[in-house]
Amino acid sequence: MRLAAFALTAKAYELAKTFQRSLDNPMTVYVSAKVAPPTVAAETGAGIKTFAKLEEAVAETFTAYDGLVFIMAAGIVVRTIAPLLQDKLQDPAVVVFDERGQHGISLLSGHIGGANVLTQQLCQAVGASPVITTATDVNQCQAPDALAAKLCLRPWPKVRIRTLNSAVLEGQEVCWRIDKTLPHSVFYKRQLEQAGQTAELCVTSQCLQFCAEEKDRTWAVILSEPNLPALPELPQNVLCLTPRRLIAGVGCRRGTPAALVMGALDMACRMIGRDRSFIDALASTVVKRHEAGILFAADSLARPVHFYDHAQLQAMIARYQLEESDFVKENIGIGNVCEAAAYCCVGEAGGRLALRKTKFEKVTVALVWEK
Fold this sequence. Notes:
The protein has 371 residues and is of the alpha/beta class. The protein is globular. The chain has a seven-stranded mixed β-sheet. It has a five-stranded mixed β-sheet with strand order 8-12-11-9-10, with helices on one face. Helix 11 links the parallel strand 14 (279-285) and strand 15 (305-308). It has helices at 10-22, 40-43, 54-61, 74-81, 115-126, 135-138, 144-151, 159-169, 185-194, 258-270, 292-301, 310-319, 326-332, 338-346, and strands at 3-7, 27-32, 48-51, 67-71, 93-97, 103-108, 129-131, 153-156, 174-179, 198-202, 218-222, 238-243, 246-252, 279-285, 305-308, 351-360, 363-370. The two termini are 12 Å apart. Helix 10 (258-270) crosses helix 11 (292-301).
């Protein structure tokens, strides 16, 4: 999860830097030029940036980051982000803190965007009180869309999220069905059962077939996107969920053995609680299009590998405001390979960073979930 924090005062700036130091996730701190200390120029290489107008800075970064943390009055935040909002499946997580770090408010995209979890993490880091207002959390209920976010599943249709959450609040149990032909159906079943859910594996043709006594229940069904029914054919009490693609952006030194590339992919996936079989595609720069280690890894995984030119990578660096390495840029002509390539691969759908660019032996890997 890539994060940005916004500060309007000196106290807020210090709190933002505390967040930056406390989290494993990469965070860029944006501080108003009016209050930025003289030392801020020396800190720009450490993820510190200044802005002249908050509205302009937020407009430029709203879709570039997975989560935005504002250290200021909630009213300012609401007025600033209101023109930028799309929907709960696309908007970033938005969290608001007071400048003394006493309270953290999960303001937007609490479940799917991860704002509730982010709020709790930030509050724990500074000893603040989390303010979570989503009804299912307040009533200590397990929301299906929160589970979907944890499992990296895409809910459809969006309107059914409210239907199922309302049912949960009324005390109804959500029953889960999983298409057993999905590559990781057993993983989903195990994760759901660990979360206290009832889940069963079904053949594809039975996933959306319900007998008389089942039609009154509330259902969440995990299946592949090609098997989604037409909306008019979907019962009113059913929410469908489809697996998101996981893209591995890869960079490596010239002549890196395939074993090191595969090992790096293994370790990167383990860091996000998955294994390399979850990878749907590999991505890199055209400079590496003949790199045997990357080609062998893609072949071994039976996954496609996509190579992008400098213009395409630079467009993603600008769109997502990615950090660039002067050393890499000097050597191959572009300052960010693995993250930029992964974002190129997800395309206009956009992506959410699962693992920032991480260095292994002679290999760098970044993992991005397609939105």
